[in-house]
Amino acid sequence: MWSALTLACGSRRPPLRALTTCTSLYIKSDGLHRFQALFDGGCVHAVRSMGDAPPIDGGDDYLALPQDKMLQQCSVDYIRTSGPGGQHRNKTETGVRIKHNPSGITTRGTERRSRLQNEAEAVKRLKLLIATQVRRNVELPNSDETVSQRISTILPTKKQRLGPNHPNYPLGLQALLDLFDAYNGSMADTAKHLHLSTGVLSKLMCSNDIIFTAANSVRKAHDLHLLKKSN
Questions:
Q1: Best exposed site among 8, 113, 157, 178 by fewest CB in 10 Å?
Q2: Where are the beta strands (DSSP E) in the chain?
Q3: H or E segment to which residue 187 belongs
Q4: How far is CA 66 from CA 106, 151, 160, in A?
């Protein structure tokens, strides 16, 4: 059984890709693929080797779980941290570090003075990480009505689309990225499937750092040039 390796070692032994803390992972059923993340405030993210981790599936179920059910799938550590909150914050273990056991993804919440608030922040970040990192296979053409409805909630053609701070945003984001990956990162094919112009889809993919980074990780995995934001 292989242990996790760092990116610096340059290992190329399949199916395990080089891992490191402070690095996000592009996860598929056939292995781990590296990519760099630009969000989540520099929190440490680590994933075990596939030899240690159980199969990754049911991503939608993870994201649809309420906070208490999500935490039941996690190993939770309470930690002392420095930062806003002063001496009271540093004297007690108000910081929260959670590891989602099915996927191995780890994140933390430390910016609040309350442990409960930090738990909520950690779960919120965890769901975004699962949405951007866990890819599921999509059979094309996909006619799943639930998937279509979830994607539609974040499309720019919807008057009241969900933003990154909405609790249901990760559901739509993961569904969109799964479809994007199924089309091998093709903007044209994904846009056609969604009945959008490539310009509208491009605007969506560049609308915030979370989706922009995740979309580029998909394109990088398929050896395509990265998207660029217009000035």
A1: 8
A2: 25-28, 31-34, 74-79, 95-100, 106-109
A3: helix 187-193
A4: 18, 20, 23
Q: 78 phi and psi, to 5 degrees?
A: -105, 130
State the Cα–Cα distance between residues 215 and 132, nearest whole angstrom.
8
State the Cα–Cα distance between residues 204 and 184, nearest whole angstrom: 18
* 208 to 52, 152, 173, 211, 214: CA distances (angstroms): 33, 17, 12, 6, 10
- The secondary structure of the chain in percent helix, strand, coil, rounded to multiples of 5, reads 40, 10, 50
For the chain, give the number of residues: 231
pLDDT digits (tens, 9 = 90+) for 32-77: 333 333 333 333 333 333 333 343 444 457 898 999 999 999 999 9
Q: Look-up: residue for tokens 């442990």?
A: 115
* The pair of three-digit structure tokens given for residue 152, joined into one six-digit string: 């539609």
User: What are the CA-CA distances from residue 61 to residues 20, 70, 77, 101, 140 (Å)?
Assistant: 27, 10, 23, 14, 21
Please, what is the angle between helix 169-182 and helix 115-133, to 10°?
A: 20
Instruction: Name the more confident of 52 and 139.
Output: 139
Radius of gyration of the chain (CA): 18
Contact between residue 129 and residue 105 where contact means Cβ atoms under 8 Å apart = yes
Residue in the structure block whose two tokens are 């032994």: 13
pTM above 0.90, yes or no: no
